[in-house]
Amino acid sequence: MGRLVTTIQDTARRIGLAWTPAHTSVAIVVIALAVGFLPFVKMGLVVNGVFLGAIIALGAVGLTLVYGILNFANIAHGDYMTMGAYTTLFIVGYLLPKVGVEGSGLGPFTFGYPLLIALPVAVAAISAGAVVVDMMVYRRLRDRGVNTVVVSMASLGVAIALRGLVQIIWGGDIERYPRETRQVFHLPMDVRVPPDAIFITTVAIILVVALYLVLDRTKMGKAMRATADNPDLALVSGIDTGSVVRWTWVMGAALAATAGILLAVYQAHLLPIMGWKFLIPLFAAVVLGGIGNPYGALVGAFVIGVTSEVSTQWINPSYKPAVAFAIMIGMLLVRPRGIFGGGRS
To answer: pTM for this structure?
Structure first.
């Protein structure tokens, strides 16, 4: 266990997290609990929790990235997920067939290659839309110097408007991407892994690594971190904070839209409230890892994903959001700043 904790410490330091003795204590407790409960937990649920955690991670990292730069809780983040999923449905189910692009299946996956074409197009569309919403709503509020609580309430209005737009266009019925039934991979310990879950996790890993490289290795990433630490100082230092804000919305909305698309693939259906319902796990992951800390949100996402799935071994699956909410409340009571102290990127 000591070697594992040391490895975690070294990894945390490499990605810029301030590791303290308190973090070591938390890591030891979490590892001990995980090892202790392992004999009583179905490994299939743990694996499913990892796949769900990958989706939560994308949404949570995007949510905490927006908070880190703009300092407000974007309640519309979940509805950007919904818009991403439905925009992809529109492209796959309507636009691509109009130009003769159809696909019945792609290897072992339930979806065809049109989804791979639609995904980046939908993500780009939602990112552009997020920038437009910022210009029309949030930037005007910032220019007037309104309280961040007011901006959060404005994002609630944006969320309701986006959800209403989805219901006007597609209605409230369940929608599905074109899909085929595929066999799952059977692993030891009664673990069954759908190929779609492997695709979801791979996409999530690629995007998280790409975000790390952008934040850590690029000029814009350094400007974003400087703006998150002190916007006024960044501005007088010559950093184009307006450009930083735009790129923050692009990246945050892109992660949200991708998470929504992957969630639709994972659960095999779409609903107008799918992103809204997903907000609790997203906020729970952000609070657990430390508000404003993308790497903390990543850790929190997998904790929320695994614990939510494992809880279904003993409670009704419909109570999974309650489990995430309970973890969030517990963290606020024990460590209000989160596991990694609420540091920003």
So the answer is: 0.85
